[in-house]
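Folds abound. A case:
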Amino acid sequence: MTRLEYRLYAEGSETFPLLYYYDRIGRDEVALRFACDYFIKDGKVYEKTSCAVEPECYVVYVQEALDERTMLWSKPEGPRGVRMELREYREWTADYRLVHTFTFPDTLEAMLNLQANYLYAEGREWQRTSAEIDEDRETYVYYAVPV
């Protein structure tokens, strides 16, 4: 078990305020979070700027994504496991259609799917545009366009 920190990144700043931290988090979950482009917590959307490995912890640097907003989607239901939604990305839209909800038995299987460039659902191929961890809804989200 290790420590993960989310720190606020500001262009030109020499300090990076601590936003959130997680003690006793598994490295596999840290790797999942490193793969995400966005982080949602307490109703705010943050965009990842970079990740770092420090001697005592792992760090994700984020900045508030002022052009993004949280969606009013409900928390996915289903069996226990790591949940990931596949949502159809469309520019200039106010909502993203839920294509499929995956439930994985472990973080390794979730990581393989979250990092994939392509997934298959609804009988077609979907190309990844971005991914996020939505802590408010306890799920990962894979945004994609149909190929």
Summary: The longest strand covers residues 124-134. The radius of gyration is 15 Å. Residues 49 and 62 are 5 Å apart (CA to CA). Residues 82-146 form one domain.
